[in-house]
Structure formats: C-alpha cells, structure tokens
Write a structure and sequence with these properties.
With 248 residues, the chain is of the alpha/beta class. The chain is 44% helix and 15% strand. It has a six-stranded parallel β-sheet with strand order 3-4-2-1-5-6, with helices on both faces. Bound molecules: farnesyl diphosphate. Farnesyl diphosphate binds next to α2, α3, β2 and α4.
Length: 248
C-alpha cells in the first residue's frame, strides 16, 4: 500500500499553506550558489502542486517571496523574479491542463514590471480553471496585510459605510487578500525551522502545523502525502472537548 493509498479522500484539508524553506542551505550542501537551490525549489513546487491537485486539495498557498525577502542581495532578488517568470511561462500549459487557477496575494505593485505583467497574464489565462486554486504569496507579509485591512475598514467606519459594532471575525476576514479562500487547515514548513515568518497569521488561527526537517528542494510527493496523513491523524477540536466531538 502506498502512502497515497492510505489517505482518506473524505478528509482532505480544504486549504494547505506551505512555507517553502531551505533552498539556500540545500544549494550549499551541494556546493553550489543559492540560485541553484531556488531552481531546484521550482522543481519541488511543480511536484507538490501536482500532488495536491491529485488528492483533491482545493486551495494551495505557497510562500514564494516575503516582504522581508526584499532585503536579500539584489542579485538573488533578480534571480528569483526571473525564475518566477520562467516557471510561469513553462508551466502555464500544465496549469491549464490540470485546471489549476492561479492567484497572487501580496504587495504586487512592488514586483518588477516584467514579473508583474507575466504574473497577471498567467492569472488571466487560468481564470476559468476550477479544479484547484494555486495562490502565490509574493511580496507578502501578514502584518502588512492586516494593517491594510485595518486601514480599509477604518476608512469605511469614518465614511459611515461600516458600523463599528459590525466589525467581527467574518467582516475582518473579508478585507484580507485571502477573502476568496477558506482559512488553511494545514500549514507545512520545511527545513527544520519552527517559525511562522509573518505568513497568514490571522488565517492560521486554527490550522494544524506540520514541520519537517527536509529542505524544500528535497520535499517531494511522498513527503507531502506524509504531511496529509499526519493531519488526518489529528483531532481538530476547535476549542471543544474530545468527548463533545465523539457525541456528534
Ligand atoms: C526559501 O529558501 C525560499 C524562498 C525565499 C523562495 C522560494 C521560491 C521558490 C521555491 C522558487 C519560485 C517559486 C515559484 C512559485 C515558481 P531560502 O532561500 O530562505 O533558504 P535558506 O533558508 O536555506 O537560506
């Protein structure tokens, strides 16, 4: 029995979010430059997108570039932006064939115009796909997103469009970049780091967290299925007791 066969198709996380970490260390281990790690990171992205679509994950969010990543050497930033364009062009047919709809969240106007334009082109080309949403977090940080949402809500309170007492969890969520998607039920981080790195802090309030020592370029289909199986073995109580859940 393969790992994939062990997965319960009735309990697939509706939204999986991944912090893809360890490309640089992987490159170093192979005696190569960091960019080599990112290139191999793209290969891992392809494998995981396919594996997620295959088992019926409806939403997959990948942390591809954080607000903080702008502090990296310019040469690495350029390489990452170019890799993104190359990957989008190369994989567009496959995204359409697998009916995967592309989205991007983050401060996208900070992206170089070529990257931004290619991204928008890929997004509109995949617009009518409906099997899985692939959400790329680019120039994204959770604190930025929460502040932006707060500003928008405050301005509507000031103009009288929103009553201050109407602000609740649901309303706040509707002002986040992820308003179109359910909250992730599983967050995966590779490379043995136990941090959230400013990623979807609001949205993962009740997510199951899964950490693995594997570096991102080494993270493959089997590793992804293992994370799904681990998720399926957890009891999601949402504040209730174990006994209450059994009574249902
Ligand atoms: C973390 O490794 C990875 C990134 C900052 C970038 C992730 C980007 C890709 C996998 C390629 C492009 C993505 C798509 C969606 C096509 P790190 O550089 O922080 O590694 P380190 O912690 O070992 O230095």
């Amino acid at each position: 029995m393969t790992l994939k066969d062990k997965i319960n198709s009735k309990n697939i996380p509706e939204h999986v979010a991944i912090i893809m970490d360890g490309n640089g260390r992987w490159a170093k281990q192979h005696g190569k430059l960091r960019v080599f790690g990112h290139e191999n990171g793209v290969t891992a992205v392809k494998k995981i997108v396919e594996a997620a679509a295959e088992i019926g994950v409806k939403n997959l969010t990948l942390y591809a570039f954080s607000t903080e990543n702008w502090k990296r050497p310019q040469s690495e930033i350029n390489a990452l932006m170019n890799l993104l364009i190359k990957a989008l062009n190369k994989e567009l047919d496959s995204l359409n064939k697998n009916k995967i709809k592309l989205y991007a969240i983050g401060e996208l106007d900070k992206l170089p115009s070529k990257t931004y334009n290619e991204l928008q082109k890929a997004i509109s080309t995949t617009e009518s796909n409906d099997k899985m949403n692939l959400i790329l977090a680019l120039s994204y940080s959770s604190k930025w997103e929460i502040i932006e949402a707060t500003k928008k809500i405050s301005s509507k309170v000031l103009s009288g469009e929103i009553d201050i007492n109407a602000i609740n969890d649901k309303l706040f969520s509707s002002f986040l970049c992820t308003a179109n998607f359910p909250d992730p039920s599983l967050l995966i981080r590779t490379s043995g780091e136990y941090r959230l790195s400013n990623f979807l802090l609001w949205q993962i309030a009740y997510a199951e967290l899964y950490f693995t020592d594997k570096l991102w370029p080494d993270f493959g289909r089997e590793d992804f299925f293992e994370a799904i199986l681990d998720y399926q073995n957890r009891e999601r109580r949402f504040g209730k007791t174990s006994e209450q859940l059994k009574q249902k």
